[in-house]
Every structure is written in structure tokens, then in C-alpha cells.
Write a structure and sequence with these properties.
about 180 residues, mainly beta, 10 strands, about 15% helix, globular
Length: about 180
């Protein structure tokens, strides 16, 4: 029995040594994702309905991923609210090409049944990422110009036709200091 315990301790210590080396191999966050770090505010439309939009984006997981928290409110009905939590990062496979490929995860205030994994690409002025749902693929196009961000979402049907779903024009602002931001 002592031999088995020693073997287990050795195996766990080897694992502990290997973990930091694996973390160093994570792809760098693309510049287009780094550029959305911070807070943004503005307006837009969702299915033709005017809304306000507030976004807070920040790096997490040793700067390997970007988290985006977005909250909108209908201008004509402030009780009509929506929130989404996005995780975005460079692909972990494909070598140098991984810098141009994105993966993501979309979760929102509709609950877990509407969460989706996404795949995308880096563009010169931003990035695109698409989330497939049974009725359509929602293509998110993020375009950055200095302190202004355009986030447009189209619903792409199985035949490739695209229909506008939402668009937001937001400007970068100083992030409000939160109690947990010490």
C-alpha cells in the first residue's frame, strides 16, 4: 500500500509541474479583443425596437479570454430588459493561425436553454463570431473605430440569406468604480 501512495504522490506532483507549462501555451488574446476592454455606452435597435446598451468587457483567465457583459433596455419600456454574458478568445489550435480564429460562448437572460458556442474570425477592424441556433445562425460583427464600437447582429438562415436582428453604436467611457474593483 505505501508504494501505491508514493506513486500517486509522484503522479500528482508531475501533474502540478506540468500545469504551469500548459498554461504558457495558451494563445495570446488577439488585439481586436484587447481593444474592446473597458466600458461602453450607447444606443441601438433590436428587431427594430430602440434600446440603450451598456457593455463592460474585461480580460480573465490570465488574459487568455475576454468576458463581455452587455445590458440593454428598451427606450419606450424601461421594464423591457435584456442581458448577455459572452466569453471570447483565440482558438487553442492551429498554431499561428489560431490568432485569427475565435471561439466563444453566449449566455443570456433567456436562460441556459438559449446558450450557444460560437466560432469566428479576426478582421482588420474588429471580429466576427457566429452562434448557431436551430432556426438561424446569429452572426455578430464587432467593428472598432477609435473610441466607437459598432456591434451588428444578423440572423443568417440555412440558405445563407441574412436579416438584420440588432445593431448598437456605443462609445467608450470610464468604467464606474465598483465595490469589488479594489
Amino acid at each position: 500500500m505505501p508504494f501505491k501512495i508514493q506513486a500517486l504522490v509522484l503522479a500528482l506532483s508531475n501533474l502540478a509541474v506540468a500545469l504551469p507549462a500548459q498554461a504558457a501555451e495558451a494563445p495570446l488574446m488577439p488585439a481586436s479583443l484587447q481593444a474592446i476592454d473597458g466600458c461602453w455606452t450607447g444606443e441601438g435597435r433590436v428587431m427594430g425596437k430602440p434600446v440603450t446598451m451598456a457593455i463592460r468587457a474585461r480580460p480573465v483567465a490570465l488574459d487568455a479570454l475576454m468576458i463581455v457583459d452587455a445590458e440593454s433596455r428598451a427606450i419606450d419600456d424601461p421594464a423591457d430588459r435584456y442581458a448577455a454574458h459572452l466569453t471570447l478568445g483565440a482558438s487553442s489550435s492551429g498554431g499561428e493561425r489560431a490568432q485569427a480564429l475565435l471561439t466563444g460562448y453566449w449566455a443570456d437572460s433567456f436562460g441556459g436553454g438559449y446558450a450557444a458556442a460560437g466560432r469566428g474570425v479576426v478582421r482588420g477592424d474588429g471580429f466576427d463570431i457566429a452562434y448557431a441556433y436551430p432556426d438561424a445562425t446569429f452572426v455578430n460583427r464587432w467593428r472598432l473605430q477609435e473610441q466607437t464600437l459598432l456591434w451588428a447582429i444578423v440572423a443568417r438562415s440555412s440558405d445563407g440569406a441574412e436579416k438584420p436582428f440588432a445593431d448598437y453604436l456605443v462609445r467608450k467611457i470610464a468604467c464606474p468604480k465598483a465595490a469589488k474593483d479594489d
